[in-house]
Specification:
five-stranded mixed beta sheet; 14 strands; 12 helices; seven-stranded mixed beta sheet; alpha/beta; single chain; globular
């Protein structure tokens, strides 16, 4: 059945579906019970499934993730919530040295099917520690899957698949997209597990590839629409024909493993790549993708890979975040540079 719902609603529906499907699924996190979570993603779940399965934990992220490791070893499928992205760092030891390593440490005999949900990114005018983009830390850690949905439908399907995965998953939820609505097919069930490894082409094109994820996917689609209708320098360089640029937009959605194959195949057709993300530039997903593309499609590139990212500074005060975050103008400028080269 297809329903119109927000990303928060889709995440809630996915959690509800998996709680109903498997009694071993348990949720834990600060304020997720009676309050329903600070963003209400777990609204009414404690009432309907009981506080023994929807557990309000004490304040302490290391304890939340560490308890999930223990529950997974006891046969449960924990889904834990970190209230805000900037508070995940006290739990890094549990994430990196325990959660990510256990399968390798046990020579494959033990797996930890834990999902760590983290609201990420900016755009909501929050205070310090509430608008971080920590994805590169997790994507750099072998043993963790890292997912980031861009739409309610993707959030629903990917979260259900993440909960059913035998791998530990860091599930990044773009806060800016929490209240964006879209059609969700709740009858479709969980996504095919293979979808956890693949990017998604959301708009085909032949002149330029834009690869991004999370809250920047709608911005990339606006850029592609603008290039098609409003005009810019054409692929022949400055002064070339304006408008009619067909930009291909790829939603990476799975950051570890990173589906560079889909991006390379696209660049072999378009010859140009712009990568966009909210996280700072150095050592980010864009840097990894640029390296992969130059290694696998060097002779197909018509221009250097362009990156549109947050700046290499700490996240700014909320009144300045709109100057810090990538926006439509910065993305279009990067596309113009790639097209004019």
């Amino acid at each position: 059945m297809t329903e119109q719902m927000s990303m928060v609603g889709a995440l809630n529906a996915a959690l509800r579906a998996e709680l109903e499907a498997d009694e071993k699924v348990v949720l834990s996190g600060l304020d997720i019970g009676e309050l329903g979570g600070v963003f209400r993603v777990t609204d009414r779940l404690a009432k309907d499934f009981g506080t023994h399965r929807v557990i309000t934990s004490p304040l302490g992220e290391a304890g939340i993730v560490g308890s999930a490791v223990g529950m997974a070893l006891a046969g449960y499928r924990p889904v834990v919530e970190i209230q805000f992205d900037g508070f995940v760092f006290p739990a890094m030891n549990q994430l990196v040295t325990q959660l990510a390593k256990y399968r390798h440490r046990s020579d494959g005999r033990l797996s930890l099917p834990v999902v760590v949900r983290i609201p990420v990114g900016g755009g909501i005018g929050a205070v310090e520690h509430h608008s971080e983009s920590p994805e590169a830390y997790f994507a750099h850690t072998p043993g963790l899957r890292v997912l980031c949905p861009s739409t309610p439908a993707e959030a629903y399907a990917l979260l259900r698949a993440a909960i059913r995965s035998q791998d530990p998953v860091v599930f990044l939820e773009p806060k800016k997209s929490y209240w964006a609505k879209g059609e969700v097919d709740t009858a479709a069930g969980a996504a095919d597990p293979v979808e956890l490894d693949r990017a998604r082409v959301v708009r085909p094109g032949r002149h330029l590839t834009i690869a991004t994820y999370g809250a920047l996917v709608p911005t990339a689609l606006k850029a592609a629409a603008g290039l098609a209708t409003d005009g810019t320098d054409g692929p022949g360089g400055p002064g070339g024909p304006g408008g009619g640029i067909e930009a291909e937009v790829i939603d990476l959605r799975t950051l570890a493993p990173l589906d560079h194959v889909t991006v390379v195949e696209s660049v072999r057709r378009t010859g140009r790549l712009v990568v966009a993300h909210e996280a700072s530039q150095s050592g980010g997903i864009g840097a990894e993708l640029a390296a992969r593309v130059q290694a696998d499609a060097f002779y197909d590139l018509e221009a250097p890979v362009q990156r549109v990212t947050g700046h290499d500074t700490p996240y700014p005060p909320s009144r300045l975040e709109h100057d810090w975050l990538p926006n439509l103008d910065r993305l279009l400028d990067a596309c113009d540079v790639a097209l004019a080269f």
